[in-house]
Amino acid sequence: MDYTSQPPSSSGGNPHLFWDRQKEDLQGELETNMAMIYFKVYGWANNTISPTRWRDVEWSVSDFAIFYDCPEAERAWAEFRDDYMSKNPLATSPSWQAVVDVMQEVMGNPEEVPDYMNLRPEVDKSDWLREDHWVAYILRLLRYKSTIETANPDTLPDFERRVWQYAWSFGTRDSFYKPWDASDKWAAAYLLYVKLGYERDVYTSNYVLEHPDALTIQEPTPEPDEELDPITRRRQDWINSRHFLTPDMQKTQRPPFFQIFGWRR
126-142 burial by CB neighbour count: b if 16+ within 10 A, else e? Predict the structure, then answer.
């Protein structure tokens, strides 16, 4: 096999663009609010990893950006764009907390998990909320990292095989390519959320430039008695209810925590 001393990157561009705006927001708080920086950079929120188990990850945003400058990330974005943004071009980004809550709910229902990890060829997404599409993007790309850690290289496409070769040669000295624990996975999940938010912003900006009247079009107002299907209503009610619960009350309603990835509290 041919091994490279540099991690492969597919675009040849600047994979760090998604982080530039977030970095600017952080600079002003550098000396005044370290706790907020910690939250923003690593995405700690209710229902993520316990603060007592949290540790600083040993890899950088640059490591993350280069690794996810890859064909699988392009495919994940294309699926998100085609399934959701093409139908909702002006949709705003959900909060990180809302995404975490839906991720928690999905992982508490193991029969649903393959739908969010690109493990089934056909998935009925007709009842998915906005947050479901965000969760699918994040979980799919976390699974991609797990694949690089464990796959047989002979079964991988060319680009992924070159990533595997780097990970198991020069990458053994790079913390990013070591097996991830809960802190690594949560840090990466939050950065994937930021990355997707950047892609969404670019898509919406381009859409508005191409459709200058888009912002003046009023969305139709649903009829007051319009019924949601049972699955969508159950998920929406679960998300809404959590905003009125104290942390202790939330613990009693928390489903099994991310068992597939080992994300245990």
Answer: eebbbbbbbbbbbbbbb
CA-to-CA distance for 145 and 183, rounded, in angstroms?
A: 14
Global pTM value: 0.76
Q: How far apart are the first and last CA of the chain?
A: 40
C-alpha radius of gyration, the chain, whole number:
19
DSSP string computed for 161-189: HHHHHHHTTGGGGSGGGSPP-HHHHHHHH
pLDDT for residue 94: 94
Separation CA 168–CA 148 (nearest Å): 10
φ, ψ for residue 74, nearest 5 deg: -65, -40
Give the residue carrying structure tokens 């619960």: 245
Strand, coil or helix: what is 202? helix
CA 184 – CA 53 distance, rounded (Å): 12
What burial class does residue 185 get, using C-beta atoms within 10 Å of its C-beta: 0-12 exposed, 13-18 middle, 19+ buried? buried
31-34-38 Cα angle (round to 5): 140
- The residue assigned the tokens 């905003």 is 243
The closest alpha carbon to 104, from 193, 112, 120, belongs to 112
Q: What is the mean pLDDT of each run of 10 residues along the chain (265 residues)?
A: 65 76 63 51 68 82 92 96 96 93 90 92 93 97 92 90 88 87 90 94 94 71 55 59 44 36 38
Say how far apart CA 139 and CA 135 lie, in whole Å: 6
Residue closest to 257 by CA, chosen among 91, 145, 107 = 107
> Are the beta carbons of 110 and 260 closer than 8 angstroms?
yes
Q: Give the Cα-Cα-Cα angle 175, 72, 239 (nearest 5 degrees).
A: 85
